[in-house]
């Protein structure tokens, strides 16, 4: 009975119940991956919080006993402190899904997402004494969803044969947007001989840097990308300043503000070199497993895009050659048809000429045989007509031996010099 009465007394005292609940919640959330913080009073002092909460806000901010506005000041402009004020004032809990916040400032700022619940803490007489913040960081889930959506969009671009530069540029921007820390992406494409690397995409690198490395050779000592292309293996350079492979490009990287470079070779299905995929950083940095996995995923996507581009290009070249061969064949057929038509015209003209000659010969054969030579010209020749000569124009004449011999020489010469002179007819009337 006494135990029961004691139990009822404990339950009937709200302040005692509140303190016990806080102890239980601290115990439950102590090692949980869910973020938990207990805020006290209208100033929202951080009374207690679990390691997951401090890890989420980052920056080594692990203090308690300070107002949350002083612990995480960047959230003031993002509406979080106004939300706490509302919960404290109204006593009504507030929940949200995929709430986006930016934690940290400057180069250390990061985008984060949370499923969050803010519940009022009540003391004696039911008054609000503080707020409990309980939630789960969904940043990785959100980024994974974005990654899958972007990756699917890239695959759709590849499937519809979008220009390679458009695909690679979109891929680079996607990775830069999804990475929790600043990263600058570069894609270099290998020449056909695999000995040089050409600019493919690097939307955030300065132009002078892209121009300087466009066409670099593959091999040892040629930065991260040249070495990765040569070895066909990833090359991780965590500090460009101290790495011997960057000796020739160290000053260039310094001018571009680059301190680390992780390069992954882009390989074809048969192992051939297609290019390199590089992730640059402003500060020396060692990659995490997630970074390497991201590089492998997009190196594979880049390989698919480049192979499809090569295949499409090869098909275009083959089609162009086939069209050129077809055009050449058409032109040859046209030339052959033209030559045939000209040959037929010449054959017809020759047949017509032969017919005319036969007609003229028949007419001449029917004419009487003259007694005197017809080839003596205007003065005339009294020698007997002994030999008959003819020309291709159908003209014929009888002449003496000497004038026939002269005509055979001179008529032929006249014919070669000028066809319009009429052959024997002109000779006879000379």
From TrEMBL:
SMART domains: GAF. Gene3D superfamilies: 3.30.450.40, PAS domain. SUPFAM superfamilies: GAF domain-like. Pfam families: GAF_2. Coiled coil: none annotated. Residues 150-316 form the GAF domain. This is GAF domain-containing protein. InterPro entries: GAF, GAF-like_dom_sf.
């Amino acid at each position: 009975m006494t135990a029961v009465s004691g139990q009822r007394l404990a339950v009937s005292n709200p302040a005692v119940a509140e303190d016990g609940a806080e102890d239980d919640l601290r115990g439950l959330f102590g090692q949980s991956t869910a973020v938990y913080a207990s805020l006290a009073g209208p100033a929202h002092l951080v009374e207690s919080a679990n390691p997951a909460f401090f890890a989420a806000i980052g920056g080594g901010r692990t203090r308690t006993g300070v107002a949350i506005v002083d612990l995480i000041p960047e959230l003031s402009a993002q509406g979080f402190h106004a939300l706490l004020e509302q919960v404290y004032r109204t006593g009504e809990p507030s929940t949200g899904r995929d709430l986006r916040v930016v934690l940290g400032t400057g180069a250390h700022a990061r985008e984060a997402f949370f499923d969050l619940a803010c519940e009022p803490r009540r003391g004696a007489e039911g008054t609000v004494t503080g707020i409990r913040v309980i939630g789960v960081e969904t940043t990785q889930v959100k980024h994974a969803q974005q990654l899958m959506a972007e990756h699917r969009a890239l695959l759709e671009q590849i499937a519809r044969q979008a220009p390679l530069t458009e695909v690679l540029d979109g891929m680079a921007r996607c990775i830069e947007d999804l990475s929790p820390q600043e990263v600058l992406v570069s894609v270099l494409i290998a020449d056909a001989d695999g000995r040089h690397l050409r600019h493919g995409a690097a939307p955030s690198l300065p132009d002078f840097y892209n121009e300087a490395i466009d066409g670099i050779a593959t091999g040892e000592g040629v930065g991260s990308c040249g070495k990765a292309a040569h070895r066909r293996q990833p090359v991780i350079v965590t500090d460009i300043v101290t790495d011997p492979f960057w000796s020739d490009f160290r000053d260039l990287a310094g001018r571009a503000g680059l301190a680390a470079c992780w390069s992954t070779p882009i390989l074809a299905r048969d192992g051939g070199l297609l290019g390199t995929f590089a992730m640059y950083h402003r500060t020396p940095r060692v990659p995490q497993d997630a970074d390497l996995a991201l590089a492998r995923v997009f190196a594979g996507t880049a390989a698919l895009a480049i192979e499809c581009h090569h295949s499409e290009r090869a098909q275009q070249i083959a089609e162009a050659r086939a069209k050129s061969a077809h055009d050449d064949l058409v032109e040859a057929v046209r030339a052959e048809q033209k030559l045939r038509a000209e040959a037929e015209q010449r054959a017809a003209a020759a047949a017509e000429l032969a017919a005319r000659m036969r007609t003229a010969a028949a007419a001449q054969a029917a004419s009487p045989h003259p007694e005197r030579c017809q080839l003596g010209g205007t003065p005339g020749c009294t020698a007997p007509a002994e030999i008959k000569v003819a020309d291709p124009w159908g003209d014929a004449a009888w002449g003496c031996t000497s004038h026939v011999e002269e005509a055979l020489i001179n008529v032929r010469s006249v014919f070669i010099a000028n066809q319009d002179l009429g052959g024997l007819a002109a000779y006879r009337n000379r």
